[in-house]
Every structure is written in C-alpha cells, then in structure tokens.
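Practice problem: predict the structure.
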Amino acid sequence: MIPIEGKDITTINSEKEKKLNKLLLLIKEEKELENKKLDKEKEILNEQNEKIESLKAKLLEIQEKRIQQKQQAEYELKELKNKNLNIESQINSVLSCSSDQSNNDHISEKIEYYSNKQKELQNKLNKLKESKDEEILKSKFLELSTNEKKLSDKV
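Answer:
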C-alpha cells in the first residue's frame, strides 16, 4: 500500500466508506422524511378530496331541492293564475249580472212608467167616452124633447 499523507489506502477507503455510509444514511433519512411528508400531503389531499366529494354531494342535493322547490313554486303559480282567472271570470259574471239587473231595473221602470201612462190615457179615454156618451144622451134627450114637443104640437 502506498501511504498518502501518512495514511494508507485501506484507511482512506475505510474513511470514505464510513463517509459514504453516513451520506447514504442521511440520504435515506431524508428520503424517509420526504416520504413521510408526501404521505401526510397525500393524506391531506385525500381528506380534502373526501370533503370536496361530500360538498359536491351536498351541492347536488341542494340543487335538486332547489329544482323541486322551483317546480313546486311554478306549479303553485300556475294554480294561482288559474284561480285568479276563475275569480276574474266570476267577477265579470257578477258584473254582467249586475249590469243585466240594472238593465232589468231600468226596463221595469220604463214598463211601469208606460203602464201608468197607459192607465192615464185609458182614464182620459173613458172620461171622453163618458162625456161623449153624455153629449149623445143630451142630444138624444134634446131630440126626444123636440120630438115630444112636435108631437104635442100636432096633437
């Protein structure tokens, strides 16, 4: 063996081996630490993925509920619109009946008015007939009187 600076090759090789072994141990420990870090990060990622999946499921559930609520609200709105149309129809019917009733009342008033007028005219006609009958009677009475006088004069 050739001495190098007072050490022989086996000693140098032995020291190199020890240093290499220490380096290898350090590298191994560093890799183990990195692997532990990676495992923790994987675990954290898995937990986050689980949380994300859970949140996605909740979001889907909420969306489905919203869709159902929207459909229910649309159905109720449609029902309310139909009820509103029915109410409007009933109101129009009542208003129409009121209008018809008002027209009927107006017609009844007109009938009553003309009926009263007819009675008045009938009374006037009756009075005229009576007065005409009286005149006729008077004229006949006069005629009879005249005829009686003529007869009496003849006799």
